[in-house]
Amino acid sequence: MYSKIVGTGSYLPEKIVTNQDLEKMMDTTDEWITTRTGIKRRHVASETDTTANLATRAARRAMEAGNVQPEQIDMVIVATATSDDAFPSTASRVQHQLGLRHVVAFDVSAACAGFNHGLSIADQYIKTGFAKMILVIGCEMLTRAVDWTDRSTCVLFGDGAGAVLLGASETPGLLSTHLHCDGSQHHILYAPNTVVQKNADSPFVKMEGKEVFRHAVTRLGELVDETLSANNLTQTDIDWLIPHQANIRIIQAMAKKLNMSMEKVIVTLDDQGNTSAASIPLALDIAVRDGRVKRGDLVLLESFGGGLVWGSALIRY
Ligand code: UT7
User: Fold this and answer.
1) Is residue 11 domain-shared with residue 155, that is, in the same domain?
2) Which residue's alpha carbon is nearest to atom 47 within ligand 1?
3) Which of 178, 215, 244, 247 is catalytic?
């Protein structure tokens, strides 16, 4: 048995904060943000939004797209670094909001690479026959997790959610997943849980941007090679690259590595900023809905984040 994506959905909050808006709030410029990152604006959740609500909206759209009824879903996996509660999981709230049966629901903590981790886990459950239909969601409210007086991080992030339904299939859809972690670099990108870590000075995202950038380009390059070689493929076989959306320069480096024109890369960074675990399912849903990614296309998903963690998934969509 294989797993295949049967439906995608996404949700972005209505409120948009542009680089020009940020210029009025802090010592930054549209020029700096655009040239260093590729970001022009980001969506920001309302006061009343919760991470679970964003996730549920994206999930409903995926269910509509795949024509999947609540009773068909066997499991909910939510990838998030910004869960509403320390416990229980965001997945448990989503399970309830969607009116699902008492099926397994849990969160995955793998920062910006969380969605690929969720896909990989879901794939194992489907291959073993434990589940036939799994909802995998990436959702974040990173704008609540940044220090709005720290211009080096707060300009980077946005809020949103993306979801896929992964279903059992006779033909291969999810061809392979590849996940890695280097815990020795934990300190270059993290957000302390200040309830537990009493000595931490703040709960906000801390990042040594240049170091993270350097590791990202190296590790993602290796990951692309690993994924192609595991599937006996070459660069030209890939139809679409859907990278985690952290920095346009990292994305361009991966396109170059794959010898791929930027037209074959799904970029949402300009409109959404870095939405962490949500960025890949958001980009996938947008590209499916606007007709770029079609059934049968070979799609490479790759992501990198705090941990450090990095992961890929190769999909015959
Ligand atoms: O999603 C998880 C993975 N995350 C990533 O992959 C992020 C990887 N890193 C990056 O994307 C980049 O390192 C950043 C976009 C975060 C930063 O770009 P950079 O080219 O590495 O800049 P920098 O941090 O070295 O800062 C350069 C200068 C500094 O000024 P000085 O010390 O050279 O005078 C910063 O203070 O830019 C300054 N700066 C800013 N200036 C205007 C930092 N943030 C801002 C800002 N506006 N918002």
Assistant:
1) yes
2) 28
3) 244
